[in-house]
Amino acid sequence: MKPPRFEYLAPASLAEALAVLAEHGDAAKVLAGGQSLVPLLNFRLVRPAYLVDLNDIPGLAYIRQDNGRVVIGALTRQRALETSSMVRERVPLLADAMPQIGHVQIRNRGTIGGSLAHADPAAELPAVVAALDGELVVRGAGGERVLRAEEFFVAYLTTALDPTELLVEVRLPVVPPRTGTAFLEVSRRHGDFALVGVAASLTLDDAGICTRCAIALTAVGPAPVVAREAARRLVGVRPTIDVLEDVGRLAAADLRPDGDLHASSQYRRHVAGVLTRRALARALERAR
Ligand SMILES: Cc1cc2nc3c(=O)[nH]c(=O)nc-3n(C[C@H](O)[C@H](O)[C@H](O)COP(=O)(O)OP(=O)(O)OC[C@H]3O[C@@H](n4cnc5c(N)ncnc54)[C@H](O)[C@@H]3O)c2cc1C
To answer: Over the stretch 193-240, which tens digit does the pLDDT of each residue have?
Structure first.
């Protein structure tokens, strides 16, 4: 398949890219790693009049530590995150999720910004950002907005991004002491999108009591699902197998995932509970 005709634009600065988007709005589509957009073009599921390539813009790919956060430029390749020692040490949940995204060839080109802006309901990165309560920095010709995951992810393949805006940066908090995190998923084959995925984080105090817990699930709804009530069940108690079991049950109870050819709704809900328990057990081991 070949893409429909489009005019190719390669702005050399962020300001130029934003001006192009402001001018063309809905008629333009931005290209980052192309790992989702190019198949959509080739299947003619999207037909932009203008393709705005971000790859010539300097300064959009970086991983830095800043004020208790790791800040990541939107054009940072997924593989760069996977191999970053700063990410491994400071945001281990992100490091854990990276190898589960497609295959290495895809991660060599795919970007963090592209994955978040694409907002596939089975993608790993939206759940990671939601679990960590990260910030998404969005810029348009009129200025900048900083959004939380709940504000950014709206529905299937839909975000709060206006067609004239770009996601420019992702900010994730550095992991606090005595915190363990884990990302687990079940997929049909390695490299496939998740049938269910769970991002979990928990913090212990010196006595081994859980002081903070966050759980976010992917592939069980139109956007990442934050299991707040389930996470609250852990806070203030010593995590035991029974408690973790209970948290898994609570996390699964409210889910109403769609079923499809690969997994029924009931199966997805069951796996979500089991994976939540296992992810928390792994996070607990790491926190200790
Ligand atoms: C075989 C295969 C398997 C895959 N498996 C997985 C998987 O298991 N898990 C997973 O999460 N992903 C998977 N992917 C998708 C991959 O992670 C993509 O890299 C990612 O979804 C899109 O990132 P990209 O940089 O390639 O974006 P592109 O494909 O270039 O763009 C994707 C969309 O985001 C928009 N966009 C890109 N950057 C920005 C920005 N900075 N601001 C605003 N909008 C922007 C584009 O306009 C487009 O609409 C797979 C892809 C393939 C081909």
So the answer is: 999 999 999 999 999 999 999 999 999 999 999 999 999 999 999 999
Q: How far is the CA of 168 from the centre of ligand 1 (A)?
A: 15
Task: Tell whether pTM > 0.90.
Answer: yes
Q: CA torsion, points 27, 32, 33, 38, in degrees to nearest 10? A: 0
Q: What is the pLDDT of residues 77-90, one digit of tens each?
A: 999 999 999 999 99
Residues ≥6 apart with Cβ < 8 Å to 59: 14, 73
Q: Which helix (H) or strand (E) holds 288?
A: none
Q: How far apart are alpha carbons 127 and 224 in whole angstroms?
A: 5
Give the pairing type, strands 7-9 and 63-66.
unpaired
- Please state, as a whole number, how many other Cβ atoms lie within 10 Å of the Cβ of residue 11: 18
- Which of 72, 69, 284, 68 lies closest to 181 in space, CA to CA? 284
**How far does residue 109's CA lie from ligand 1's centre (Å)?**
9
Q: Which single residue is written with the structure tokens 């984080």?
A: 201
Protein residue with least CA distance to atom 6, ligand 1: 102
Per-residue burial over 89-120, b if 16 or more Cβ lie within 10 Å, else e, is ebbbbbbbbbbbbbeeeebebbbbbbbbbbbb
Structure tokens at 263: 């997994």
Location of structure tokens 């934003």: 18
